[in-house]
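We treat protein structure as text, and this decision shapes the records that our systems exchange. Because each token names a local backbone shape, the row as a whole describes the fold. For reference, a complete record is included directly beneath this paragraph.
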Amino acid sequence: MPREHKYPFLPYAPARYPEPDMITKGRDLLCLMEKRRSVRFFSDEPVPRECIDLAIRVANTAPSGAHQQPWKFAVIGDAATKKQIRLAAEVEERENYEGGRLTPEWREALAHLETTSDKGYLETAPWLVVCFAEKYGIRPDGNRRKHYYVNESVGIACGFFISALHTMGLVTLTHTPNPMSFLTEICHRPGNERPYILFPVGYAAQDAEVPDLRRKSLAEVVVESPGLIA
């Protein structure tokens, strides 16, 4: 029996695969994503702008609360703005690392990553992409439009963005200097948006290194349902 809708709906028939093909596709994706790492050593080799746009288009396919898509992506490629962002980010990072803003517990948690207040990669990477979260929308009459599940929605979109970059052979880092309000000013964004993540994007440097880390096993992250108790 046909369903009745007040709003437009379309038929949807996603591809289905035989079980062996499903497992193969899943394993192929796992193999690809297991090689993904956050990188702090970038090449200055140019990256086509189309790659950035494609990654943002992938991010834009993410699910969002009430399909409000509460995100904006600011793309920066000019050297002067990248330098401005680096200098502003390092002011905040020096407060973290040298100014005592980081608690001893936080410092201990970061120690094995050997991070410092030096963020030179923000100038080296050919592109910086700043994801802004829209705290609320603006209606045509100028009134506010409430957005729902903003953090969850923008977080998923950023995950899609990272996956798209990795698929194209590019690397990035989820840089979140705190506070990040300087990005609002530098990128000329309105007051209803707040910086969410700053992504340097490019190729890994030929001598790039990453910490020797171990990801949790499946057994460590899966919790089986206890089921119903008779």
